[in-house]
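Format notes (please read before filing issues)

Several people have asked whether sequences and C-alpha cells are stored in separate files. They are not. Every record keeps both together, in the order shown below: the sequence lines, then the C-alpha cell lines. Line labels are part of the format and must not be stripped during preprocessing.
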Amino acid sequence: MQVTMALMRRRTSHLAAVTLLAAASLSASAQSKPLGFSLQVSTDGIFSPKVVKAVVGQVQEDSQAKAAGLSVGDELIRIEGVEVPGNGAYALKPHMEFVPGKPKRLVFKRADGATYEATLTKSPP
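Then the structure lines:
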C-alpha cells in the first residue's frame, strides 16, 4: 500500500476529544454558565499526530469562556501546565477533558502575543 506525501502534510481537524464545546449546565453561582467554546486543532502526522496549533473557533455568549475573555482566534498554549503546541494529540487528550467540579487552568495567546489565563469548571452531573 502506497501512502502519498499529501497524507503526511499538516491537516486541520476538529477533534471530538479535543473540542471543548461545553453546553452542559453548571451549578448556580459564578459558574452557572456553560464552558462555551470550541477549538480548531491543526495536527501534523497520521499515526502519531502532533498538535501544531489549537485555536479558539467559537465562543458562546453568556458563557464562562466569554466572561474569561476568550476570543475567536486566540491560541491555547497550555492546559494545566502542559504545553499544547508540539505535544502529541493522544497524550493531550486526557488533559483536554473537563471533569465535572474540577477547575481547569488554561493559558491562551492573542494574535498580538499577549498571554492570559482562564480557569473554567464543568458542573457536576
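For reference, the curators noted about this record: The chain has three helices and seven strands. The two ends are 47 Å apart (CA to CA).
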